[in-house]
Design a protein that fits this description.
Order of helices and strands: EHEEEHEHEEEH
Strand order of the largest sheet: 1-4-3-2
Helix content: 25-40%
Number of strands: 8
Structural class: alpha/beta
Largest sheet: 4 strands, mixed
Amino acid sequence: MPVKPIPDGYTTVAPYLFVDDAKAAIEFYKRVFGATSGSMIETPDGRVADAELKIGDTVVRICDNLPIFDAKAPSELGGTTVEIFLWVEDVDAIVRGAQTAGATIQQEPTDQFWGDRLGRFKDPFGHHWLVATRIEDLSPAEIEERARAMFSSSASSDVARTNSAQQSWSP
């Protein structure tokens, strides 16, 4: 039987997270997302060289910030260049659970014009998460109409604020 190029149980794209304390991060993701542990390879000093977690239907890989890798943990970089998007059953419960577990809320869950309820947080390891629950099924035309309405009202508000600021400022 030929080897499958993409093993069963894996998706074609999955994040690989670099952190300062992989074992603590694994516990955080288990608590907040209900992640389940898979394999783990440890270095002789007990750090995690590679571990797999399953969050929903996706295997997420994680490791400690080790000098053998070019990629670095957000704490070492002073930030991150990506946000991880995750569909969940109850965005409000996940955001509250993340906050209780030590995450910093960046955006409280709010209803979005495209039909999702979305929240954002930064986990204790520096990774940014967008979590969402679909609350309305909309057609592309409905989303476009709502976007147009939102952006036109935002633009009007921005122009009004700019005009007001210009009128109150004098050299």
